[in-house]
Amino acid sequence: MFDVGIGEAAVLVVLAVIIFGPDQLPKVAAQAGRALRQLRTMANSAKADLRDGLGPEFADFDIADLNPRRFVTKHLLDDMDDVDVREAAEDEPFLPYGERPPYDPEAT
Question: What subcellular locations does the record give (predicted)?
């Protein structure tokens, strides 16, 4: 989820100690943990409310499917699993370098 390396984590810890001080840091960490837990609970309850509101016909609905990248992958690219792109490219010959494609006056 987060791409934080060891060096970056150490810098964040040092900054937290400098900003909050060693005596306040445990309190701030506990508050941040409670806030994160509350946000996660609110998000899960909102998902459950949405599923309940949609009814049984949307029982297999996944909210993550609304992500544009996942939507395109699921609805457009999953159907292309049986198509081999290399075979399709070999069927049509490539033009040699510098050669122009044939001109079609009806297409323009």
Answer: Membrane
What is the C-alpha separation between 11 and 7, in angstroms, rounded?
6
d(Cα 98, Cα 101) in Å, to the nearest integer? 10
CA-CA distance, 21 to 95, in Å (whole number)?
A: 68
Map tokens 């060891």 to a residue: 6
- The CB-side HSE value for 41 (13 A sphere, CA atoms) comes to 6
CA distance 97 to 103: 17
One-letter amino acid of 46? A
Q: Mean pLDDT, to the nearest integer, of 7-17?
A: 90
Domains of the chain, residue spans: 6-91
**C-alpha triplet 72, 76, 78: angle, nearest 5°:** 105
User: Which of 37, 36, 39, 64 shows the shortest CA–CA distance to 50?
Assistant: 64
Read off the pLDDT of residues 14-47 as tens digits, 9 standing for 90 and up: 998 999 888 998 999 899 999 999 999 999 998 8
DSSP 14: H
